[in-house]
Amino acid sequence: MRYPLGEYERDQIRSKTGKKLDELTLDEVMKGHVSSDDIKISPETLKAQGEVAEQNGNPQMKLNFERAAELTAVPDDIILKMYDKLRPNRATKQELLSMADELEQTYHAPTCAGLVREAAEVYERRGILLN
Questions:
Q1: Main-chain dihedrals φ then ψ at residue 87, nearest 5 degrees
Q2: Residues 30, 22: Cα–Cα separation, whole Å
Q3: How far apart are the first and last CA of the chain?
Q4: Residue 41 DSSP SS3
Q5: Which of 8, 36, 38 has its CA nearest to residue 23?
Q6: N or C: at which end does the chain have fewer Cβ atoms within 10 angstroms?
Q7: Cα gap 91→97, rounded to integer Å
Q8: What is d(CA 126, CA 49) in angstroms, rounded to the nearest whole number?
Q9: What is the distance between the alpha carbons of residues 78 and 59, in angstroms, rounded to a whole number?
Q10: C-alpha dihedral (5, 8, 12, 15), degrees to nearest 10
Q11: pLDDT digits (tens, 9 = 90+) for 78-90
Q12: What's the whole-number mean pLDDT along residues 118-131?
């Protein structure tokens, strides 16, 4: 894969619903052939971007893309709730651990779950959890 994917790997890029990048045009939007779900990125595209990052010496960026790929399966309202709870002094340790369990068990997002568990431990050490 070569970056930018939209320029060099156009035929490989698909939306979350499977539409090709070339099918996502203003004309298709105006005809009503493109929904909001059609413009969401696919986990495969995010993983491909992660591979490019790793090949270019950025393994941390690859991990970020892997977490993002996992989050494509998580409903938007759950993601917003997660971001709110991850702010300092917005959750108890148990709330964060329960959220991590939900990410892992319900949405099959183990990397994201691990990040939330790590945050719970760090927040506890720093004293920025609700009691």
A1: -75, 145
A2: 15
A3: 48
A4: strand
A5: 38
A6: C
A7: 10
A8: 34
A9: 27
A10: 40
A11: 999 999 999 999 9
A12: 97
